[in-house]
Specification:
This protein has 178 residues and is of the alpha/beta class. The chain contains seven helices and seven strands; from the N terminus they run H-E-H-E-H-H-E-H-E-E-E-H-E-H. The chain is 35% helix and 21% strand. Strands 3-2-1-6-4-7-5 form a seven-stranded parallel sheet, with helices on both faces. Helix 2 links the parallel strand 1 and strand 2. Helix 2 runs parallel beside helix 3. InterPro entries: Alpha/beta_knot_MTases (IPR029028), rRNA_MeTrfase_TrmH (IPR004441), SpoU_MeTrfase (IPR001537), tRNA_m1G_MTases_N (IPR029026).
Length: 178
C-alpha cells in the first residue's frame, strides 16, 4: 500500500471567508493570562482546525496582530473570532450571561476527569486555560461551573497549556460535532 504524502492543494481546505461562515462547535476558549505568544498561536491554530466558536484573550495574554502569535498560528488568528478582556473574571461573567457553561481546566478539588465529562450538543460550553506557571486564577475557578482535569500517569504534575488545549478541544470536538 502506497502512502504518498498529500500536497497542500490536495487537502481541500476552506478559505478564511468560508471558515467565518461555516458552522462551529459550541465551544469558546478562554486564555487566562497565558504569557507565551507561541502557546497563544498554537491555541488559535487548534481552534481553527476544530472550528471552535471563539477565543477570549484575557489579562497579559497577547492579542493579534503579533508576529510571535502569527509564527505559530500561521494565519489562524485571522479565521478564529476573538475578543479581549482585561480581566478574566469579566470574560467568565459575559460568557455566562450569553448562556455558556464554563469549565476551568485545572487540577482542583472535585474536578471531573476529562473522560467522564458529559456534554449536551444543544448547550454552549467554554473552557478556561491558565497561566503557564500559576494555572487558572482561583477567583476564575470559583466563578466557573466546574473544573475538568486531564488524567496523568507520569512524574510531572502538568502539561504545557497548548498541549492541554489541544487535548481538551479535540475531546469537545469529538463530543459536540454535528
Amino acid at each position: 500500500m502506497q502512502r504518498r504524502k498529500l500536497k497542500i492543494e490536495e487537502l481541500s481546505r476552506i478559505s478564511v471567508e468560508e471558515f467565518r461562515e461555516a458552522e462551529k462547535i459550541p465551544l469558546a476558549v478562554v486564555l487566562d493570562n497565558v504569557r507565551s505568544r507561541h502557546n497563544i498561536g498554537s491555541v488559535f491554530r487548534t481552534g481553527d482546525a476544530f472550528r471552535i466558536k471563539e477565543i477570549l484573550l484575557c489579562g497579559i495574554t497577547g492579542t493579534p496582530p503579533d508576529a510571535e502569535i502569527h509564527k505559530t498560528a500561521l494565519g489562524a488568528e485571522d479565521s478564529v473570532q476573538w475578543r479581549y478582556f482585561e480581566e478574566p473574571l469579566s470574560a467568565v461573567e459575559v460568557l455566562k450571561a450569553e448562556g455558556y457553561i464554563v469549565f476551568s481546566i485545572e487540577q482542583a478539588e472535585n474536578s471531573i476527569s476529562l473522560e467522564n465529562i458529559e456534554l449536551d450538543k444543544e448547550k454552549k460550553y467554554a473552557v478556561i486555560f491558565g497561566h503557564e506557571v500559576h494555572g487558572v486564577a482561583q477567583e476564575v475557578i470559583d466563578a466557573s461551573d466546574g473544573c475538568i482535569e486531564i488524567p496523568q500517569y507520569g512524574t510531572k504534575h502538568s502539561l504545557n497549556v497548548s498541549v492541554t488545549a489541544g487535548i481538551v478541544i479535540w475531546d469537545f470536538f469529538q463530543r459536540l460535532r454535528i
